[in-house]
Design the sequence.
């Protein structure tokens, strides 16, 4: 890391900042999930709360431990762990054994996130990486999450719509990403067809579009790159699952596209406006 | 040909407070001023000499030199060193007011000024001490000589930064003078057209200038607007938006420079004062007012009835691209558009967190860079990568640092990368 202190000790512009912050971002994203948890409880999927509790406690513990081991500050204040735990509990099957939940959170927090250098540094979606690992190791247990599988109901779908609406309204992230993903999924479904019921299909697509693609760390930085990423993810999701779409296939698809992110970043590198001759006249301050 | 959709951030404008005190006033001359000298100016007064307001105190030296004029009447106290607005020590001339403040005599209008040719205009600019009223402070005659092939003169009335109202107030108070000044600059440049640039929210100013152009029957002038988002309206973004890859064919002057050009040519008044916005939440009576060059920030704030409470930061310029001043002993220069005294709650910055690659900085960069990639590379001292991602093209507008949810020191890191690249270029 570099030392940024100036010789004069004075700070550098800008001196005002937007209201954006990580805690606000994760807070709003977590808040958007509340209707989904409420609907899960009301429709007989209260086990999700047990999974949430276990993933939350284990996530906080692993975050604390990894902070001690790697000499970093824990991320409780930003709310990242709470969001991760909330999404992870929805990604797992309803009756997932506690030890698998703990193992999954360990893989996501320590194995995927911290070993790659912490928040934002992991090239893969940590939760999907963890879920795919569990799925490969325990294929019998790691079935589709109840909320997005055959047990999904109109009420959970309505709650998911509400969650997506709250998420959309919170304006945390690019609005094009989820919309483009959904459009591409619907297009692929229309083109290739699938065995999934419309409710299962829509629930899975909505959840992936708004909550799994909400983690930008493994996605390209530019809008064009991100668009290519979601189109690829949508196409792969629909082709990897015979049913047309599933959380498992979306996981594989997103992870595969994560692999391509450095090339997408380089390929869609923005062409800068050359303004070298104007810099001296416009911003001559020597900070 | 590259045409881009204007990019930027919509900032809270905070201009209402200083626009409440609409009329431009000249406060009583301060006790003392310290006028900074450029390297291309040679002092022609000595300590103890009595000077009048507007009197030449330094002669232009060399073709890029420009004269310097006294902002107040008084006695030359010292010619020495002071810290200027850019945190560097430069030579300066101090003038202390003697006796009671006197009224500055009315300027003497120049006869037949409308027929003066381009060469003569450049001489007048040079001898009047006319420099650009933006932070570059480039002598106007030098800028014009650099843009001999310019076909359009853009008069910039945009102030995309919050708090700043000096240009708007000046244009609203002296619209015809600004128009005449623009015509003088057009003639000096040999350009065919004048384009007045305003933010699209500045409806009164747009209407006023349009009506004046109509009644003057000027076919060579037009009014164009830019969206009121930062940094649209800065010189670089105006050229980006309108010159479409042919920057050499347009030259941008702030409206206050056009006004100063009019005064220099038509009224024979040298450039020794400018309109400055003194504002910020801490100032009792924020307003734009005439201040002589060299007046201290303390005196400027005192002219607006002082501060209500101790400011956390005192800035020269706007909060997005300005510079922080630690001491109260900083001085107004030609490029000082604003003096802002900001409280803690306005300038507070959240805790720094790691980059989550959200892409907000990329989406809001007005020159289409990838600040996240550049800063992540600079953080790891990978300056080669930062260079490959076009760090040199950054205009340092501060958008990325403003918008970043992780509160990363984006501009510091970009500045560091640029500094390293300059060093590499210089030493191979």
Sequence:
């Amino acid at each position: 890391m570099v030392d940024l202190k100036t010789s004069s000790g004075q700070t550098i512009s800008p001196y005002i900042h937007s209201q954006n912050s990580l805690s606000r971002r994760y807070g709003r994203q977590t808040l958007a999930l509340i209707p989904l948890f409420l609907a899960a409880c009301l429709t007989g999927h209260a086990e999700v709360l047990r999974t949430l509790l276990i993933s939350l406690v284990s996530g906080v513990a692993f975050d604390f431990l990894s902070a001690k081991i790697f000499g970093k500050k824990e991320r409780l204040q930003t709310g990242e762990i709470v969001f991760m735990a909330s999404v992870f509990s929805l990604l797992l099957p309803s009756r997932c054994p506690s030890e698998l939940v703990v193992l999954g959170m360990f893989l996501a927090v320590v194995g995927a996130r911290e070993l790659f250098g912490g928040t934002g540094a992991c090239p893969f979606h940590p939760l999907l990486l963890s879920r795919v690992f569990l799925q490969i190791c325990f294929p019998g247990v790691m079935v589709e999450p109840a909320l997005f599988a055959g047990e999904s109901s109109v009420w959970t779908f309505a709650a998911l719509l509400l969650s997506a609406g709250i998420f959309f309204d919170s304006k945390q992230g690019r609005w094009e990403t989820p919309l483009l993903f959904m459009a591409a999924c619907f297009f692929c479904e229309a083109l290739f067809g699938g065995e999934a019921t419309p409710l299962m299909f829509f629930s899975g697509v909505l959840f992936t579009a708004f909550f799994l693609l909400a983690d930008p760390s493994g996605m390209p930085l530019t809008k064009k790159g991100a668009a290519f990423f979601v189109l690829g993810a949508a196409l792969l999701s629909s082709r990897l699952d015979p049913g047309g779409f599933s959380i498992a296939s979306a996981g594989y698809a997103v992870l595969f596209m994560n692999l391509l992110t450095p090339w997408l970043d380089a390929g869609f590198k923005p062409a800068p406006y050359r303004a070298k001759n104007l810099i001296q006249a416009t911003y001559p301050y020597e900070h | 040909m590259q045409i881009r959709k204007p990019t930027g951030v919509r900032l809270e404008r905070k201009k209402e407070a200083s626009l409440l005190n609409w009329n431009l006033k000249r406060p009583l001359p301060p006790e003392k001023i310290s006028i900074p000298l450029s390297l291309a100016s040679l002092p022609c007064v000595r300590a103890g000499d009595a000077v009048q307001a507007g009197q030449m105190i330094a002669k232009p030296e060399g073709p890029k030199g420009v004269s310097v004029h006294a902002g107040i009447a008084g006695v030359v106290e010292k010619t020495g060193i002071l810290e200027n607005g850019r945190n560097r020590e430069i030579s300066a001339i101090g003038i202390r007011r003697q006796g009671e403040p006197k009224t500055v005599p009315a300027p003497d209008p120049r006869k037949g000024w409308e027929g003066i040719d381009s060469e003569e205009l450049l001489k007048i600019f040079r001898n009047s001490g006319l420099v650009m009223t933006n932070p570059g402070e480039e002598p106007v005659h030098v800028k014009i000589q650099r843009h001999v092939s310019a076909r359009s003169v853009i008069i910039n009335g945009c102030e995309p930064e919050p708090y700043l109202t000096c240009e708007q107030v000046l244009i609203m108070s002296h619209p015809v003078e600004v128009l005449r000044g623009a015509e003088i600059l057009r003639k000096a440049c040999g350009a065919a057209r004048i384009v007045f640039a305003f933010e699209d929210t500045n409806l009164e100013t747009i209407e006023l200038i349009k009506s004046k152009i109509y009644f003057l029957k000027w076919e060579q002038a037009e009014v164009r607007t830019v969206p009121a988002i930062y940094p649209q309206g800065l010189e670089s973004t105006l050229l980006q938006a309108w010159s479409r890859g042919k920057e050499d064919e347009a030259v941008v002057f702030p409206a206050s420079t056009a006004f100063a050009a009019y005064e220099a040519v038509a009224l024979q008044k040298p450039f020794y004062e400018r309109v400055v916005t003194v504002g910020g939440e801490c100032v009792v009576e924020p307003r734009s007012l005439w201040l002589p060059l060299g007046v201290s920030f303390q005196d400027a704030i005192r002219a607006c009835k002082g501060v209500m409470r101790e400011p956390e930061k005192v800035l020269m310029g706007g909060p997005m691209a300005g510079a922080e001043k630690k001491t109260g002993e900083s001085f107004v220069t030609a490029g000082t558009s604003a003096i802002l005294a900001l409280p803690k709650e306005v300038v507070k910055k959240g805790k720094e967190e790691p980059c989550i690659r959200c892409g907000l900085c990329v989406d809001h960069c007005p020159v289409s860079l990838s600040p996240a990639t550049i800063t992540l590379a600079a953080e790891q001292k990978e300056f080669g990568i930062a260079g490959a991602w076009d760090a040199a093209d950054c205009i340092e507008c501060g958008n990325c640092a403003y918008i970043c949810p992780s509160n990363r020191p984006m501009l510091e890191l970009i500045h560091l990368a640029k500094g390293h690249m300059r060093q590499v270029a210089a030493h191979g």
